[in-house]
Amino acid sequence: MTLRGCSQPCKDSKNTAMKQIMNLLAILWSLFAITACGGSDDGGSGSSSPSTITITVSPESISSPATGGSYTVNVNTTGVEWGAYPDSEWIKTTVTGSNTSKGSVSVTISANTSTTQRTGTIMIQSGTGRKTINITQDAPLQVSEEKVYTSSKGETIDVEVTSSSEWTATASDSWITTKKNGSTLSITTSANDAQKERTGKVTVQTAVESKEISVVQASAEDREIVAPDGYRLVWHDEFSEGTTLNSDWTHEVQNSGWVNHELQNYRNGTADGKRVTELVDGRLHINCFKGSDGKIYSGRVYAKVKQGWTYGYIEASIKLPKGKGTWPAFWMMPVNFRSWPADGEIDIMEEVGYHPDYVSSSLHANAHVHSNGTQVTHEMYCKGAEGEFHKYAIEWTHEKITTFVDGKVQLTYANRNLGRDDWPYDDPFYVILNLAWGGDWGGAQGVDESKLPVTMEVDYVRVFQKK
Prior knowledge:
single chain, Immunoglobulin-like, mainly beta, Jelly Rolls, ten-stranded mixed β-sheet
């Protein structure tokens, strides 16, 4: 019987299709068999690898002090190979046994030099398995003041201590006592009746860290010194001890022509058998004279040249010399000087002999400098500046600089927040006292050597800073 609509070629086509399906099934079955019976990672036992890799670590977290340290983490994994990957540069790892199921990680944590606690992680990875080790490091021991100043009468200064662990405080000397009240450390000094400043220290210590606080107490002579409101005396020289300057001062040594075409030769203490600086009757004398060799000699000295001060009220009592050619100055330069005028210059007081009794203050920076006439400057008449003592001072803060002559405002300049070119005055500066002869300004109208020798006298220099 023949079906309607189907011939013999149709029947052959069905047979061919059936054979192709059977062949395809045979191929798939062969592939399944190969996969099921293939070799495995465990040496060909025929068992399949685990679908999930398990990792265990001991310890699971590390807490480190601020000083850092070294630690060992033991690792077990059901995988074969593994590695350790820290997420921060301050965490270093060294892996042992990374191609076995058991191994270890040596962890080194560097010292924390920031001011806060920090955290990080180490990721242990084996195939698709992951395990995180959490790292926490304490903030370092901190004190709000590393140097404190007290009056000769004795007083108590509070210092705040920040620590993640218990701490103690010990004093180096019997005239210093300490008291702990929570995070506050009270440092108390007894009266200093000596005519000399004294120094000591307080050590704040934890089990692994320590901080030193320097304690400076003024001499008895400061009891007559009245600090401006809101300020305390931090350094001074009354020039009442000995005949030469103490170690706080440094002499400049330079030949004539060094700066501003000035004619004097600066020397360290003595020149041609005479003193360029000396202490006489409780005052500093800076002497300018002509030597037997025809050269002019004088003195230029720096106070705390390597340390200086940042901000404060700084005052000196000075008697200026007379004579055309003199150029005395009380001024400041930056401790970390690199270039002028970019790093700044603060002239508290200058005067030239051909324009007697007119004293000036100036500021120099990239944005205001005398070489192009843009310097910030002000001049005022001070009767008797030559031949009598007058007080010259500066009040210097981040917000503004103000200079004074006998308590009267000479110059005021505000920080306009225009950057360092306009305000390079947030760095430490040191005090300079000098007596120049001639030069671009001092010798602008010539010099009169018949007036030599001349002397600039300084009764005191005092530095106050805010409490």
